[in-house]
Amino acid sequence: MSYKIVIDSCGELPNELKKDKRFESVPLGLEVGDYSIMDDESFDQALFLKKVAESPACPKSSCPSPEKYMNAYHCEAENVFVVTLSRNLSGSYNSAELGKKLYMETYGEKNIHIVDSESASGGETQIALLAMELSDQGMAYDEICKQLDEYRDNMKTYFVLDNLETLRKNGRLTGVKAFVASTLNIKPVMGTDGDGNIIQLSQAIGIKKGLKKMVETILNDIKFTDDKRLIITHTNALARAELVRDMLFEKAKFADVIIMDTAGISSMYANNGGIIITIRR
Length: 281
Description:
The longest helix is centred in the middle third of the chain and has 16 residues, at about 90-105. Helix 3 packs across helix 4. The chain has helices spanning about 15-20, 45-55, 65-75, 90-105, 120-135, 140-155, 165-170, 180-185, 205-220, 240-250, 265-270, and strands spanning about 5-10, 25, 30, 35-40, 60, 80-85, 110-115, 155-160, 185-190, 200-205, 230-235, 255-260, 275-280. It is built from eleven helices and 13 strands. The chain is about 40% helix and about 25% strand. It starts with a strand and ends with a strand. Strands 10-9-8-13-11-12 form a six-stranded mixed beta sheet, with helices on both faces. A four-stranded parallel beta sheet has the order 2-1-6-7, with helices on both faces. A three-stranded antiparallel beta sheet has the order 4-3-5, covered by helices on one side. It is an alpha/beta fold.
């Protein structure tokens, strides 16, 4: 059956899929002081990070409207799979659900399955890629929905950031002492709990030790990696992303690895230098 994958713009897509008609990215909005843009193909990361560094105002985001999601669902595809960032981090999931309701009221019944990634960035990408792979295998719609939800429930997200201020000021770090971390150069290794809330997993002093601690945490959590896809996203920090990949490769084998620069929303929250890793348990 024909299919379409809708992903909000917090999830990055590999370059070869950005123009693929089976995929559509629904953009969130970005705002830094008087500067506002959409997180779409026009996003300029260098300019945005410059605006963030220069502005005393905390950058903010806005979720897509339900109408934008409804329009994304209005297509020839028989099955539509939707992946959003965690509902505890954004209203994107709720907009996707309202968009589905609007679609049904306007156009009638359609197979639309919405997955709250309980993650962000590469976590959304992992689920979107799986939806593509299972659809290409000819798997039945109901079974794909089940497998996507199971994958989400067994996916782990890890990240280390140079700067926690955007997360803190936007109320996303209720369980992490961001001001202490900044003052003492402590780099928390963070992840998400089963509900998509950000939690602290470990910590180290300095970014290099923080990245090493994150690698150790991953290898302790994920015992069998040979059949796992590793996704590393970074905010203007390719060398760090490659360093983390190499440290992981020294200790384990993976079925695939994808390294991508963050799009707008992830760049806003991760800030310059941030590293995010997702992998299935």
